[in-house]
Amino acid sequence: MKQGSRFWAWLVFGVGTTYFVLPLLATFEFSLRKRRGEYSFDAYRSVFGDPNFQTTFTYSVVVAIFTILLGVLLVVPTAYWIRLRLPNLRPVIEFITLLPLVIPAIVIVFGYIRMFGSNSTLPFLATARGTDALLVIGYAVLALPYMYRAVDTGLRTIDVRTLTEAAQILGAGWTTIIARIILPNVLIAVLSGAFLSFAIVIGEFTMASLLNRPAFGPYLQNIGANSAYEPSALALISFAITWGCMSLIQILSRFAPRSANRPN
Amino acid sequence: MADSTMSQTARVSPGAPEISRLRLPLHWLGVTPFFVFALVFLILPTVGLIAGAFKNAAGDYTFDNIIALSQPKLAAAYWVSIQISFVSAVLGALIGLAMAVAVVRGGLPPWLRSATLTFSGVASNFAGVPLAFSFIATLGRLGVATILLRDVFGINIYSLGFSIFSFWGLILTYLYFQIPLMIVIITPAVDGLKKEWGEAAATLGATNWQYWRMVVIPVLWPSFLGTTVLLFANAFGAVATAYALTGPSLNIVPIQLFAQIRGDVLYNPNLGYALAFGMIVITGLANLFYILFQRRAERWLK
C-alpha cells in the first residue's frame, strides 16, 4: 500500500510541477529572444528603458502605498474596537469584509462610475485627483478581506483588554492607544496584509482601466497588444514582484507571536 | 473617538442607568468610520446598480432588463461564462486536491510540502494580464511549447484545433490560479484527516479503497464542494486574464460588461446594470453555498 501510494504521489506531483514550471521557463526563454539568432536581455532593457513603464509603475506603487495606508487606518481601529467593546458585531463586520470577494471588482467599479459621476453629490470622477482617490478607495475595498483577516489574526495573539486598561491607567487617550500600543503589537500582521494588498494592487487591470488611470495594469495590457517579446519580460517581472511580496509575508510570519493571553 | 473617561466610569458602575444610556452611542462611534466607508463605497454603489437593473430609462420600475438578459447574445455570454467557470473549477478542484493529498499524505519529502504551499500562495495571486502573457509565450501560435511539440514530437497542436485563445485555452490558463487556490484552501482539511482514523479503519479490516470511500471522501466532501464553488466564483468574476488573452472578442459576461461600461455597446445603460446584477446573483449564490459547505466541513476540523 505504501509503495504504491508513494508512486502515485510522485506522479501527481511531477505532472503538476511540470504544468506550473513549464510556462515560467517558456516565458523566460521567449523573453530572451528579442535579438535575432541569440539570447539577450534586450527585452528587459527595452522594458526598463521605456518611460511609460517607469511612470505607470511609479503611479501604481504610489497608489498601492495610499491603498495600504487607507486600509490600515480603516481596519486597525475597527478590528480593535470590535475585539474590545463590540464582539457582537463581529459577524456583521466579517460579512462586510467578505463582500468584495462576492461582488466582482468590475461590478464595484461599475457602481462607482454610476454613482460618483461629475453631476453627483460626491463628484469623484470630475477631476483626475478625485479619480485617483476613487481608485485608491476601490483598491482598499478589494484588499479589505485580506487586510481585515490579517489584522484580526494579529489582534488574536495579543491581550487587547489588558493592554488597553494598562494604557488608560497611565493616562493614554484612544489615539495614543491605537497608534502607540495596538499598532506596534500587530505590526507584523499589518505588514502581511500590506504586502498582500501590494501584490493585488500593483498589476490590477480592471478598475484602473475602467477609471482611465495611467496604472501599470493597463500599461501591461497595452504592451501585450503591441509588442512581441516585452510582454514575456513583463510577465516575469510581475511574477517576481508577486513572489517577493509572498516571501516577505512568509518571512514576517516567522517573527509573529504564536499565541495570545499568556500570563507570563 | 469615544471619550475614555466616560467608558471607564461606565465600567466601574455598570448598573447606573443614565450612564448606560449614554454608553451605547459612544460605543458605536468607534466603528462608524468603517460602516460609513463600507456603506458609501461598497454597499450603496452595488445597491444602486441592482436598483438600476429594475428600472427603465425613464426611472420606472420594470422587469424588462432582466427579461432582456435572455436575448441570444447575452444568454450565450452567461452560458459560456458558466461553462468556463464550471469546468475550470471542477478540474482545478480535482487536480488541486490530488496535489494536496500527494504532498500531505503521499510520503513525499517534507520540504516539498512547504515549497508547494509557498508556490501556491504566489501562483493563486498571479492572475490577470501577466498570466495571459505567460501562456501566450508558452502555448501561443509561436509559443515555446507549441514549437517544441511541433519540431521535436511532430505534433502540431494548432492544426489539431487547439488554440490558446479558445475555450480550452482559457481553461488551461485559468487552471494556473485555480489549482493553487484549491491547494491553499484544501490543505488544512487534508491535514485534518487524523492518522487514528486510518489506523482504526485498518484495525477493523478495511482495505485501502474502503478507507478512502468510507472515511476520507465523506470527511473531505463538504470542504471539496465548498472550495469548488469558491473557485467557480473566482473564475466567473475574472476579467483581466480573459481580456488580455482573447481581447474584447470573447463572449463571456465579464468581457461583455467591460465593453458595456467602456462604451454602452448594448445601447441601454439599464441593461448593463442587469448584466452586473446577474453576475452578483451568480457569485452570491456560489458564496452562499461555500459558506454552507464550510460550516458542514468545520465539524471535522476541530
TrEMBL record, chain A:
ABC transmembrane type-1 domain boundaries: 53-252
Chief location of this protein within or outside the cell: membrane
Keyword hit for Transmembrane helix: yes
Subcellular localization, as worded in the UniProt entry: Cell inner membrane; Cell membrane
Residues passing through the membrane, by range: 7-26, 57-80, 92-113, 133-151, 186-211, 231-252
GO BP field: transmembrane transport
Protein keywords: Cell inner membrane, Cell membrane, Membrane, Transmembrane, Transmembrane helix, Transport
Record membrane topology: Multi-pass membrane protein
GO cellular component, one term: plasma membrane
Entry keyword Transmembrane helix: yes
Family: Belongs to the binding-protein-dependent transport system permease family.
Protein name (database record): Spermidine/putrescine ABC transporter permease
From TrEMBL, chain B:
Chief localization: membrane
InterPro entries assigned: MetI-like, MetI-like_sf
Domain of life of the native organism: Bacteria
Swiss-Prot/TrEMBL keywords: Cell membrane, Membrane, Transmembrane, Transmembrane helix, Transport
Coiled coil: none
Residues annotated as transmembrane: 28-54, 74-104, 116-137, 157-177, 219-245, 271-293
GO cellular component, one term: plasma membrane
Compartmental location: Cell membrane
Alphabetical GO biological process terms: transmembrane transport
Residues in ABC transmembrane type-1 domain copies: 78-292
Membrane topology per record: Multi-pass membrane protein
Family: Belongs to the binding-protein-dependent transport system permease family. CysTW subfamily.
Designated name of the protein: Acriflavin resistance protein
Species of origin: Mesorhizobium wenxiniae
